[in-house]
Amino acid sequence: MKKIALFTVFACIMVILQGCAKDMPTEENKEAVQENSNAYHKIDAKKAKEMMDAGKVTIVDVRTQQEYREKHIPDAVLVPNETIEDEAKDKLPDTDAVLIVHCRTGVRSKQASDKLVQMGYKNVYVFGGINDWPYDTVSE
């Protein structure tokens, strides 16, 4: 009787431990990790300004035309989040270019950055919104 009880306890422990074991990475898991490593980079306004001052970056404003007219960062390219999938190839032809994406508060810039990464852009940086931008702006 003791042997049966001991065997039952041992079997239960083995089943529990097996359920807690980590899965070995599969090809599918490896691809998901690689996709995440291609995600956009989050930076603050200060870092964005430093990158702009260093040159060779494209500032991408993903707000609406009206918001852009009211106030925008000098030399920013307007590619609204709502139409970015249709307009990006024409307005942002180099998928290797360094893109600094922003909107008003940061919500649309994150959405647009996700879309850009999915479209194959490799150097996407997002600093949030123009509301957090303490540097020069222009209006039309």
Description:
The protein has about 140 residues and is an alpha/beta fold. The longest helix has 19 residues, at about 1-20. The protein has a domain at about 40-130: 3-Layer(aba) Sandwich (Oxidized Rhodanese, domain 1), CATH 3.40.250.10. About 45% of the residues lie in helices and about 15% in strands. The chain has 6 helices and 5 strands, in the order ααβαβαβαβαβ. A 5-stranded parallel beta sheet has the order 1-5-4-2-3, sandwiched between helices.
Short description:
By secondary structure, the chain is an alpha/beta fold.
CATH architecture of the domain at 39-132: 3-Layer(aba) Sandwich
How would you sum up the global shape?
elongated
Number of beta strands: 5
Strand order of the largest sheet: 1-5-4-2-3
Q: Biggest β-sheet: count, sense, barrel?
A: 5 strands, parallel
Keywords: Signal
Domain Rhodanese: 53-139
Pfam families: Rhodanese
GO molecular function, one term: thiosulfate-cyanide sulfurtransferase activity
